[in-house]
Amino acid sequence: MAKLAVITLAAVASAYAAKSFFPDLSPFFLSLPLLVLLPFALFSGSGSYTPPGPVSFPIFGNWLQVGNDLNHRNLVDMAKKYGNVFLLRLGARNLVVVSDPKLATEVLHTQGVEFGSRPRNVVWDIFTDNGKDMVFTEYGDHWRKMRRIMTLPFFTNKVVQQYREMWEEEMDMVVRDLRGDRVAQTEGVVVRRRLQLMLYNVMYRMMFDARFESISDPLFQQATRFNSERSRLAQSFEYNYGDFIPILRPFLKGYLNKCRDLQSRRLAFFNDNYVEKRRKLMAARDGKRLRCAMDYILEAEMNGEISSDNVIYIVENINVAAIETTLWSMEWAIAELVNHPNAQQRLRKELWDVLGDEPLTETNLQRLPYLQAVAKETLRLHSPIPLLVPHMNLEEAKLGGYDIPKRTKVIVNAWWLGNNPEWWHKPEEFRPERFLDEEKEVEAVVGGKVDFRFLPFGVGRRSCPGIILALPLLSLIVGKLVKDLEMVPPPGVDKIDVTEKGGQFSLQIANHSTIAFHPIAP
């Protein structure tokens, strides 16, 4: 009845305003607001006890109030108004936002099966061919099979040990290049591009036993261009209106066609230049002497476990989920260390005190607690996936005492869990030592003892398996750079710009940083 009263009052107010501006308007037109809104008020409720949220309207729901931009900071503002779990009705979609560690535990762990699926969206369906990948597919047998097949060649300690020397080799080349680059030492360089080459070589050597010779390598340029455009189209908020409100979807025709065209050319690029080459090598060796991750995946295809479509979408997932997110974190870490020279100096002192002339390797990361703290503080302050990858319940569920309608998109604001001043001391500050002092028990883990205030990789069944690669890769490159190079702003600049650029579920630095690198004398 309260909703009915509010709707009726709004309709009467609209009619009164219309009468003031248009005194000759007929009674029928004056009553239109009430005629439109009254059925919604009478029939939209089903007796369920759903989470609080703003009053929604027919067809549009809350879209007219909240718009397209549902970034992590905007959702924090709404949580302060509506509570730690609230509901937005966005056209035909329901969205529940969780901003509390206990409720996050429910979604990700306690009710991990109930909320274990992924929501669909008109753009993601194009980029995953309706869930033929692992990251965005619904929870069930297909997901379990894809996760198992991807884990063996990519996400185990054995894989780390197999490839760690290759990682270190690629990173040492970065340090060597910067030490020998006069422009890097004087004017500064946009270091992202060189880190991008390093990271692509790490992942493509693991995946395809292939590498790019330089930034000017045509294949590297094509791969990065395809992946960058894919991220831009998928992460944009500008298509939300057509996804939320089906009657507006025709206006998305051009956008969706652009997505389809890009994905067609992009997958053909991966298939023609990499997958088919490995398939031919596998056939020539009769499946023996597996050398890289793709060989294991193609073996699963030959055994009938997955299809050729699944193979190419595994490649798609690695290109986006493994490479891009790790690169964002590297950029953030470097920018923060440049802006906090005391932290950079403390890290360099630890590296030289502990290692001396010994090179930094994956095996000695555990001896460097401040380096680990820098990595964790970067992931806390600048979560690469601030809302994690969205979850969904296939059937009606309960959360925090509320009824959650089936097929509701459920997002956990992991950035706010790690930046809420109620739970963290001065969370807005980049202060790695917090993880050596008051937060020394907090680890970036996805299993075992989990602190649900700190979830950069999620947790539970749908957590990111890439943590086993991302953490050591981030720590290694940051440590190697700081040990051998002093990183400072370019001439005429006091601070590196750390303005955020958010996406559907991404958080990257808006302006790629120009950094000057001064070699440290041995």
TrEMBL record:
Record has Transport as a keyword: no
Entry coiled-coil feature ranges: none
Record-linked PROSITE patterns: CYTOCHROME_P450 (PS00086)
Cofactor: heme
Highest taxon above the source species: Eukaryota
Membrane-spanning intervals of the chain: 27-45
Subcellular locations according to the entry: Membrane
Binding, heme: 464
Biological-process GO terms, alphabetical: lignin metabolic process
Record's keyword annotation contains S-adenosyl-L-methionine: no
GO molecular function, one term: iron ion binding
Record-linked Pfam families: p450 (PF00067)
First and last residue of the signal peptide: 1-17
Annotated Gene Ontology cellular component terms: membrane
Keywords for this protein: Heme, Iron, Membrane, Metal-binding, Monooxygenase, Oxidoreductase, Signal, Transmembrane, Transmembrane helix
Stated family: Belongs to the cytochrome P450 family.
Protein's name in the database: Trans-cinnamate 4-monooxygenase
Organism: Ensete ventricosum (Abyssinian banana)
